[in-house]
Design goal:
mainly alpha
Length: about 90
């Protein structure tokens, strides 16, 4: 599991669409699909419930989204702190 995969997953979950998630991150739809598929494969769970153009989070997806958002926020805080120290 990589931070970039989590960023992509979180964007898709927040946007409710692979296409809109990809556009928000300025990446291709196929890159987005592959990243989510790789996460699902690695974790052995389905993250999204897909039905007739409706995309919703599965229970596992809801858990991952909460944890991913916390981890991504922490990673950004670390980046800002280190960058601040380097510029001081």
């Amino acid at each position: 599991m990589e931070l970039e995969q989590l960023r992509i997953f979180a964007a898709v979950a927040r946007e409710g669409s692979f296409t809109r998630g990809a556009k928000k991150l300025y990446i291709s739809h196929s890159t987005t699909s592959r990243a989510v598929a790789a996460l699902e494969e690695e974790l052995g769970v389905t993250l999204f419930e897909r039905s007739n153009r409706i995309l919703g989070l599965s229970p596992a997806g809801e858990t991952l989204l909460a944890e991913a958002e916390a981890l991504l926020a922490r990673a950004e805080a670390i980046r800002a702190k280190v960058k601040g120290n380097a510029e001081a």
